[in-house]
Amino acid sequence: MTSLIRKSLRGQRRVLLGWLLGLACYATIYSSFYGRFDEIAAAKFDAMPEAMRTAFGWSSGFSTGAGYLDAVIYSMIGPLLLIVFAIVLGNRGIARPEDGGQLDFYLANPISRNRFLTGRYLILAGGILAGAAVILIAVLSFAVTMDMGIGIANIIAATSGMALVALVFGTLAFAVGAATGRPGTVLGTAGAVVVAAYMCKVLSDLIDELSWLRWLSPFHYYTANQPLLHGLHPGHTLVLVALVTGLLAVSFVTFNRRDVGV
């Protein structure tokens, strides 16, 4: 298992390092802009149509630290970046090496399919955790030094929720790869589900008659409790954990039952 993980990490080190550097730069640059958004920015926020603010997930203005970080890091762009990173890692878990004819070299080792899947999934989970960690470090650094007035526990909760949502979609990509072994199918399916899930959240917030759609979207379970202000909702967090667990179980069942391409 250890040798498998080391070999997998060596093969993905450029992807991992590139994405971690990009996430760190993104969080650092946007967090450092706080303080430049004064009353003018607050006025512009108030002038925006309500539908536009809802679509972007901006629940409050830019004038407070929580409102600013929610707008530029935690509501839309940050989660989507981390989700794309998770889908990339999920695609490289099974589908990418199988499509490239490399899977037989991994399975030729004296290791069961379950242990192989476990090792590949640990890289996915570890990558998402590392991505969330670099965002957390950057945000915490500026939140403390620039006195944004946000509790450290709430920043940790919001970042953890964002990582958990990314893990849901990353596990979905991993499960599709385990079931099909086709990178194109993985990217197409995961991308379609992300868009559909986000649209369900937006439409449920905009149209009262479609409010039931929010329960179909993982984004709702992350943002509904406004984690930067109130922390994570225990029940919503359990739903996200259940989604991850269910998708991971599907990965093991489908991969063990099919003939893999070599």
Q: Mind telling me the C-alpha Rg?
A: 20 Å
Count of alpha/pi helices: 13
What structural class do the secondary elements suggest?
A: mainly alpha
Mean pLDDT level: 86
CA distance, first residue to last residue: 21 Å
Tell me about the largest β-sheet. Answer: none
List low-pLDDT spans. none
* Helix-residue proportion: over 70%
Beta strands, count: 0
Strand content: under 5%
Shape: globular
Keywords:
single chain; 262 residues; mainly alpha; 13 helices; 0% strand
Task: Provide structural commentary.
With 262 residues, the protein is an all-alpha fold. It has one domain. It has helices at 2-32, 39-47, 50-55, 65-74, 77-91, 95-99, 103-107, 113-145, 152-180, 183-206, 218-223, 227-230, 234-257.
Q: Could you give a short description of this structure?
A:
The protein has helices at 2-32, 39-47, 50-55, 65-74, 77-91, 95-99, 103-107, 113-145, 152-180, 183-206, 218-223, 227-230, 234-257. The protein is mainly α and 262 residues long.
Topology:
Layout: H1 2-32, H2 39-47, H3 50-55, H4 65-74, H5 77-91, H6 95-99, H7 103-107, H8 113-145, H9 152-180, H10 183-206, H11 218-223, H12 227-230, H13 234-257
Helix pairs in contact: 1-5, 1-8, 5-8, 5-9, 5-10, 8-9, 9-10, 9-13
